[in-house]
Amino acid sequence: MQEIIWKIIFMILLFTGGLIRKPHMKKYKKTEKTKSKKTSREKFLCFLAAIGMMLVPIIYVLTPWLNSFNMNLPDWARWTGIIGYGFGLILFWWVHKTLGKNWSPILEIRKNHKLVTQGPYKYIRHPMYTQMWIGVVGYWLISSNWIVGIVAFLTWSILYFIRLPEEEKLMIEEFGQEYKDYMKKTKRIVPGIC
Ligand code: SAH
To answer: Is it the case that residue 149 has pLDDT exceeding 90?
Structure first.
């Protein structure tokens, strides 16, 4: 298949993620927050992830600048990426629907915040981050490009490993024993494993 077709498919998948998030972002902006960890570090990490997971993929799609880093992966590998990424998008939609008014793009507690333990949260504590891991591997496979894959993987890893302990600390501060009990029953990103 021609490179341009892969690029179009990649763009559509990226755009679909944005569309799933859009209505939740609108509601999020209107709600009051009672606790926020909007530190300059958190803002910088989000900025870094936006470069790695949005800007670089867009540069790959819209310009020939990264073409010399193409890996020429076989079509089956790229299709695997598309199927994986598609599955990740379903999870992304489910997570947003389940978290509802409790979702925020940064570490925050919203007014009347409830601890969510149903839907995907019944099996793991961070299904949205599971989707992000699937997503960055998907980026690499679909684009078949070293730079797109490595930059997305690195920027996401930095955000994940710094943010996760902070997020769990925030949840313990807010929900105390209820969250500690929930931690005993669930793993972080892969059911029953880790
Ligand atoms: N880490 C989760 C959520 C990411 S969105 C996931 O991967 O699915 C980040 C926000 O979700 C945080 O600001 C936190 O306040 C909120 N959050 C995380 N886990 C939650 C839970 N189980 N119930 C309610 N809110 C949660």
So the answer is: yes
